[in-house]
Structures are given as C-alpha cells and as structure tokens.
Amino acid sequence: MKKIVSLILTGALLLVGLFAFASCGDKETYVALDASDLLQEDFGIAVKKGNTALLTAVNAVVDKWVADGTMTKYVDYYTALSESMEKGTAAPDANGLKTSWDFGTATETITMYTESGFAPFEFLMNEKVVGVDAAIMSEVAVNLGKKLDIQDVAFDTIPTCVSTATGDAVGAAGMSISDERKESVDFSSIYFSSTLVVVSAESKSYSSLKALDGLKVGVQEGTSADLILEAAKKAEGYSYEVSEGVMSEAVKLASSTTVSTYKQYALALADLKAGRIDAILMDKLPAQAMLAVAD
Predict the structure, then answer these.
(1) 3-class DSSP state for residue 192?
(2) Strand partners, 130
(3) Which residue of 160, 211, 245, 295 pairs with 21 in a disulfide if CB–CB is 3.0 to 4.6 A?
(4) pLDDT tens readout for residues 76-115
(5) Does the global pTM surpass 0.85?
(6) How far apart are CA 144 and CA 148, in angstroms?
(7) What is d(CA 214, CA 244) in angstroms, rounded to the nearest whole number?
C-alpha cells in the first residue's frame, strides 16, 4: 500500500462522484467532482479466502455504516482524536458514536492484523490500537459473539498473516484493494476512497487538478490536497506512480494559481459561496459530508 501522505497512490479510477446542494437563500448549486487526473485508492478489509461467513459479517457493518453516514463520522472523529493527541489538546466529543465495545465472556476470537501508523484508520492511544478499522472490526466481533485480538505487525506481512491464520482473521490497515492482493485474500466492500474531488459552483464544474490552473483554490492545511497543489506549482509538477517505476504525466500549475489554506472545510465553503475562492480540493468523504450538512 502507498500511504496517502506519501502522495504515491495505488488503486483504480472509479466513476465520477457527484454530490450537490442548494443552501437556503443561495440560488447557486455546488458540486463535488472526482479529480480525473488524480489516481484513486480504495480501502477494504482483507479476509481469509473462503471465509464467507466472516466476509458477510464485515460487509454488513461496512455497508450499513457507509450508507447511513456512520463511517464518515468515525473518520472525522478519529481524525480529530489523532490531531488532538498530536497537539496535546482536549479530545473531541464522540457525539454518541460507540468508542468502546464489550466482548463479554466470548471465547472465540477474530484476529485483526494491522500496522498502527496510519491515522485515522489505526493509531496508538495509551498503547492500544484505535481508529476506524478497529471500530469496524470491534462491531463485527460483537455482532458475531466473538472477541477481537489486534496484532500490530509490519504492513507488508498482513496479507500473508491473514492467509495463513488458522482461525478467523482479517487485515484492517487502510489497505488498498488490488488484483495482486486478491490472489491471497478476499476483500470487503469499499469503506473509504482517497480520491480527491473539486468542490465548485455547478456552473463551473471543475473535474481535474489541471482545470484549477490559474484559479483561487481552497484546501485544508496539511492535507494531501495541500501537498499536491504545492507540488503542482513547482517546476517538476505533480505526478504519481502508475506502476513500479512508471510515473504519470506531471500536472503543472502556473504561479498565478492561488492556494488558500483553512483549518476547517466550513470556512473554505463560506469563502467559496462568497466568491473569494473558485474551488476547494479535498477528499471525497469529507466533501460528501460537508455538502450533505449544507443541504
């Protein structure tokens, strides 16, 4: 897997995603379109091949949480929690989200193999692995009347750990779904995609990084979008690894492209609606949540 923060993304492009809203008193409609020249990475839970009962149970949680917005809430919560830990500030309010699970007297175990350095999906808090993936698999374990044992291992060993395990086992580590990995494990439904989207007025409908050339663009400070735009404004431009040793065509943006950074997406949206910026470059799930709230 290539971590999001490395800007070397793996995966496959999916169809353009479109979310729209028209806020009260604002006649303009806003959309979020997949950036077609940025590669998408889709995350799934890896399950030992042939374990259809466990795969079905994982998909039941993943599909429900994605459909009702719970997955986005967990992503946002654990993002905020990891940031509060880094900054030494107060932990965020879980706002009703379940953050602890009681496995009771369960004797059967699901082993979750992970690598704990990929917040918000997994990170250490008080020497315990927490995050989106741990939440998913804790819910699965409770639903099956089992307990969860989390093993923190080297990332590149996870598919082998899952495929050679003697009991119920999964790999949950912000793991991208790939044909190579499918040879040794089965994957759950997609629960997170790292595709970046361009949020703009529907009349503009920017759908690529290149389309932002010369515009005023808003990003959340320190995100992948921020780093990508920074790279695109340099002489060598921004490119990503298509396959081993093969890079995509570089996208270069003129120096006239203005990047405004924000602590919160809501502030960027306010500037977009006020015409102070032309577009926002951000991840799909936060964009979906933002537009849904503003609807």
Answers:
(1) strand
(2) 123
(3) 295
(4) 899 889 878 877 899 999 999 999 999 999 999 999 999 8
(5) no
(6) 11
(7) 32
